[in-house]
Design goal:
Number of strands: 13
Strand content: 15-25%
Radius of gyration: 27 Å
Subcellular location: Cell membrane
Largest sheet: 5 strands, mixed
Order of helices and strands: HEEEHEEEEEEEEEHHHHE
Main location: membrane
Pfam families: Transgly, UB2H
EC number: 2.4.99.28
Number of helices: 6
Strand order of the largest sheet: 4-5-6-9-10
GO molecular function: peptidoglycan glycosyltransferase activity
Distance between the termini: 44 Å
Shape: elongated
Structural class: alpha+beta
């Protein structure tokens, strides 16, 4: 009993300490996001001076491609002097500009007509998203973009879980059945074959973000397990704020997210 009491007397304060470290480290996470410099948006209006070669140059600068249909964002189709362009949405100085499909005809060196390609209504003007002309990096040359969890493709999330942690939604950070399976495989092979049993949350714990190291020691593994449990237990229930488009940003402190949260 004395040994049990002594063990609990050490384990409980140490677990609380690691929990505080996990919360603090995730709360302090920052990434440098590069500043992207864009040209002016291309404003199309009836009567605007424009020829097919110039319009194609403008579209190429903004990474549009001619797919012959112009139905997907950043694509267009051309037939003589008739263009069908599917624009991307973007944030302009006066607010959000929604994506749209426009149809325009060129004649006599200018825009002869402009209309919505879906409802066929005439338009007075249409803005296409601008070309990126420069990217300014900080100390690290990283092309990083912060997104919310619900912005990640479903295939990416489900594929990652299927490959790395198929029981992700059924355990609490530690997959005991996976550990037992890995031990059994190692024993049966006489140590010749090894099978991983770390969950995604464990991989996050030893990724370097929590500072517990990656060395193969009992102490490090013990800390990894405790940090994993602390990470799962510490996740807040409030919704995360939208990811910013520039500058430094803190990550949402949600270690085992659902599809509807960060």
């Amino acid at each position: 009993m004395a040994a049990v009491a002594l063990g609990l007397g050490f384990l409980i304060p140490y677990t609380l300490y690691l929990n505080q470290q996990v919360t603090q480290r995730f709360g302090e996470l920052r990434w440098q996001i590069p500043t992207r410099v864009y040209a002016r948006p291309l404003v199309l209006t009836p009567g605007k001076a424009m020829d097919a070669a110039t319009l194609k140059t403008e579209l190429a600068a903004s990474a549009y491609r001619d797919d012959g249909q112009g139905k997907e964002p950043a694509t267009y189709a051309v037939n003589g002097g008739r263009f069908v362009i599917s624009s991307r949405g973007y944030n302009d100085v006066d607010g959000r500009v929604a994506p749209r499909r426009v149809e325009l005809s060129l004649a006599d060196g200018g825009v002869a007509s402009l209309r919505d390609a879906d409802n066929r209504k005439a338009l007075k003007a249409a803005r296409l998203d601008p070309a990126r002309i420069a990217t300014l990096y900080g100390q690290k040359q990283e092309e990083r973009r912060l997104i919310r969890m619900d912005e990640a493709p479903d295939l990416l999330v489900t594929g990652l879980q299927a490959v790395e942690d198929k029981d992700f939604n059924r355990h609490h950070g530690i997959d005991l059945s996976g550990i037992a399976r890995a031990v059994w495989v190692t024993i049966r092979s006489g140590g010749q074959s090894r099978q991983g049993a770390s969950t995604l949350t464990q991989q996050l714990a030893r990724s370097g973000l929590l500072g517990i190291g990656k060395e193969q020691t009992v102490t490090r593994k013990f800390n990894e397990v405790l940090c994993t449990w602390a990470s799962v237990a510490a996740r807040p229930s409030t919704a995360c704020p939208p990811a910013p488009s520039s500058g430094s940003a803190a990550t949402c402190r949600r270690w085992k997210p659902s599809r509807s949260r960060c």
